[in-house]
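We were asked to recover a plausible sequence for a given structure. The inputs and outputs are reproduced exactly as logged, with field labels preserved.

PROBLEM: sequence recovery
POSITIONS: 563
GIVEN STRUCTURE:
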């Protein structure tokens, strides 16, 4: 055999290692078990992928300003406003997450203006990009599996809901998946720039949230599980009974050898250069973001301090919930993805010709679920960290169904995909229905787990009343406002253009109607406010729910209230 043909065969074998089983390498030209008989015409694949991406985009961008800003969105919006207007941002490890959210959103608000749509727009784009990354895993999940997984992510209630939220989590899962995709590409091609993409994704992951060490740890453990399980069940540990068994055992042993690792990096010298460059890029990006682009070097120390802060938060009673909480939430919001993920992971472990990536995705998804379940601190947006890998292995379950039907019935054409389309379509339809409900109808109903202490739509009525009153005074957007309630976020976001707002958090001794047009208090302060504001002010409307457990009341200067 010529040198060229030898290299070609070696490359072909390397590219099949994760998408196919070790046993499949006995016959180099045999397709992986999950793709045999399930190939899609390229035009069908492209049109289907485009349809999934269009659906993901529509669900994430349509009526993006519909739901009021959440408490956390208001806080993040405050930091972004300060960064845009003064150029200042200082990372605070005691209260807030990493700086990537603000700097990556900054260009959008600089171009589009400081609006609710603009700040959520970038997050929505990252949500769509996550779907695109899932589609790039076609060779590992199979064509039907990748489309199914991408469709599940596109319509997942959690993935959509938090892609329409100005918080860190959608960025976080994108960078996590980016690490996986870049690692696979580097494993296949040995091209150094994929290792740089891996390093960059990892750096941005750590610059986004302190919980990055959990995701990184689970990814490493999942990779070890997939390699170890395939090695354990491929005959490498058992005495080979024949020549094929000996050959298979030798291949597995060589695959795990230090020499094979050096070869994959292109030799010890190139490996050293690549590793040093990757580490340098990781450190440089983290220094850049945490130092606020060299304007706040104490932020770098804060990034290290944040690990201890988060450890205290994670084990405190704040947001503390039982171990089974995430499973309960998944059952209520993401049941189709959970069921398909359980099926795909179970079959991946015990099928004869194993798909190492499917085993990895299952270990990643359920490993992350276990890790976050063990931590007392639980919030629903953390769930998308395991919903995304669960959707991957769930898509693999659909791919398996397509492959088994095609093999058993020897069907041809698109008919062989009908059972998989029915199952996948049913799962996507259920998720889509739930997505429509919580994103466009019940977006402030906290009986749904993802709608977690969200700002009530009635709060927008209060804001409209304030704007009307200020308009009657000829000071639209600039009227003097006193906020006496201790709980007031996200009101600072909505009053961001008004410099005459005071957030005292308590009732003052007196109010001057000439400077204070409006007083916004907590319902618990109502008797005190009625007594103090009896002269010169009148109550407007009834009670305005801000979020569950927080109800506001509104008083305005008497002459500004329409008769």
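RECOVERED SEQUENCE:
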């Amino acid at each position: 055999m010529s040198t060229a043909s030898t290299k070609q065969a070696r490359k072909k074998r390397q590219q099949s290692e994760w998408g196919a089983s070790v046993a499949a390498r006995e016959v180099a030209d045999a397709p992986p078990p999950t793709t045999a008989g399930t190939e899609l015409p390229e035009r069908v694949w492209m049109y289907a992928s485009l349809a999934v991406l269009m659906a993901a985009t529509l669900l994430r961008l349509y009526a993006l300003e519909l739901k009021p800003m959440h408490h956390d969105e208001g806080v993040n919006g405050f930091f972004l406003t300060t960064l845009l207007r003064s150029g200042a941002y200082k990372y605070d490890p005691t209260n807030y997450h990493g700086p990537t959210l603000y700097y990556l959103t900054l260009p959008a608000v600089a171009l589009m203006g400081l609006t609710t749509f603009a700040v959520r727009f970038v997050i929505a784009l990252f949500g769509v990009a996550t779907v695109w990354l899932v589609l790039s895993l076609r060779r590992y999940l199979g064509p039907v599996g990748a489309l199914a997984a991408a469709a599940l992510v596109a319509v997942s209630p959690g993935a959509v809901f938090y892609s329409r939220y100005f918080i860190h989590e959608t960025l976080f899962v994108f960078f996590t998946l980016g690490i996986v995709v870049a690692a696979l590409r580097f494993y296949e091609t040995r091209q150094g720039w994929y290792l740089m993409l891996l390093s960059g994704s990892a750096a941005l992951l750590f610059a986004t949230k302190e919980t990055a060490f959990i995701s990184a740890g689970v990814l490493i453990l999942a990779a070890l599980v997939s390699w170890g399980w395939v090695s354990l069940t491929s005959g490498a540990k058992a005495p080979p009974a024949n020549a094929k068994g000996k050959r298979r055992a030798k291949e597995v042993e060589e695959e795990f050898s230090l020499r094979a690792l050096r070869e994959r990096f292109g030799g010890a010298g190139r490996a050293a250069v690549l590793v040093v460059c990757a580490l340098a890029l990781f450190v440089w990006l983290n220094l850049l973001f945490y130092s606020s682009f060299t304007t706040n070097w104490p932020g770098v120390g804060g990034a290290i301090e944040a690990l201890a802060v988060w450890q205290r938060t994670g084990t405190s009673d704040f947001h503390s919930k039982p171990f089974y909480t995430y499973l309960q939430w998944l059952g209520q919001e993401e049941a189709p993805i959970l069921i398909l993920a359980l099926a795909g992971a179970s079959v991946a472990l015990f099928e004869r010709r194993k798909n190492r990536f499917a085993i990895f995705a299952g270990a990643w998804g359920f490993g992350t679920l276990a890790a976050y379940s063990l931590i007392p601190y639980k919030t629903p947006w953390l769930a998308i960290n395991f919903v995304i890998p669960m959707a991957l292995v769930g898509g693999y379950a659909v791919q398996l169904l397509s492959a088994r039907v095609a093999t058993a019935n020897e069907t041809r054409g698109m008919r062989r995909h009908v059972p998989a389309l029915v199952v996948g379509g049913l799962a996507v339809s259920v998720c889509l229905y739930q997505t429509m409900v919580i994103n466009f109808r019940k977006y402030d109903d906290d009986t749904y787990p993802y709608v977690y202490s969200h700002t009530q739509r009635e709060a927008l009525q209060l804001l409209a009343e304030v704007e009307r009153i200020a308009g009657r005074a000829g000071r639209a957007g600039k009227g003097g406002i006193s906020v006496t309630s201790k709980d007031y976020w996200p009101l600072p976001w909505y009053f961001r253009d008004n410099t005459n707002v005071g957030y005292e958090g308590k009732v003052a001794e007196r109010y001057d109607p000439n400077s204070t047009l409006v007083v916004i208090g907590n319902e618990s302060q109502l008797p005190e406010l009625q007594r103090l504001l009896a002269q010169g002010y009148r109550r407007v409307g009834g009670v305005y729910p801000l979020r569950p457990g927080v109800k506001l009341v509104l008083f305005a200067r008497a002459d500004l209230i329409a008769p």
